[in-house]
């Protein structure tokens, strides 16, 4: 990755303080010139109007030229220059992250808005966007588990897959259960051969393990064996939540208040023993905070090399100062010699 940007700077900016002398000099020159002028009193000055010559008009310009020359000299001393910076970033071995997402029927509960699954999808996509240098994969699980997206660096594909997660398209029964062990084991299987610096599973569920061929504790041992860190997220409010319990005659969901039951002890154990952390998301705000916390906990090392190209800009200022002083000196000692 490369980036190029330019900015302007002064190498010796403290010299610019001297510019404060210029207005003082201007006042001094004005007062001094006024006091040096000879004065005579006349009752009528109309007859003297023709004495203004081109030399009279040029003379004040000499003082202005001197002030400009001094200003240009000071700016030249401050060493103005433009700086072009080329930044090259090199990613070290980053982090491989598998998102293990519960898509059982209870994930359609409406204690998060519009429901748990949609809130999770939106937050997960934002999380992926914030980590451009990591690889991601997605595992979905309910009564069984499967890999929706294997580990890839193509974030566009991952985000598109997350957006398309739809309960009705994947699992169309309400009694399938939640196989936390299967979901975790499938994610671990996708990470076990990874050469990444760090391997992470973010396991999200709103229930308890009540089905599946692999026990969650067996999956936990697999995670420890392969050095995989697991962050667990329990999704759901405390108490009761509007949850789909049946289908109506048209295939729509019938909602009733159901008690939220999350096996927090299991999720805490999985997180603790793998070096991760357990979080509880009771609303959309908390869910966003959780993903931001994980984002801060898992940092990817990036090596950045910057190349600086300096273009010196003081020469035109010095040249302008010398040229102005030369013109002033030339005029004072030639054409205006007898006048000054």
Mind telling me the CATH class of the largest domain? Alpha Beta
Question: What can be said about the biggest beta sheet?
Answer: 6 strands, mixed
Q: Which radius of gyration do the C-alpha atoms yield?
A: 38 Å
Can you tell me the CATH architecture of the largest domain? 3-Layer(aba) Sandwich
Please report the number of helical segments.
10
Mean pLDDT: 85
Percentage of residues in DSSP E strands: 25-35%
Order of helices and strands: EHHEEHEEHHHEHEEEHEHEH
- Per CATH, what is the topology of the largest domain? Rossmann fold
**How helix-rich are the residues, as a percent range?**
25-40%
Notes on the structure:
The chain has 10 helices and 11 strands. By secondary structure, it is of the alpha/beta class. It has 2 domains: 2-36 and 53-84 and 308-333, no CATH class; 93-300, von Willebrand factor, type A domain (Rossmann fold). The strands form 3 sheets. The protein has a 6-stranded mixed sheet, with helices on both faces. A 3-stranded antiparallel sheet has the order 1-2-11. Strands 8-9 form a two-stranded antiparallel sheet.
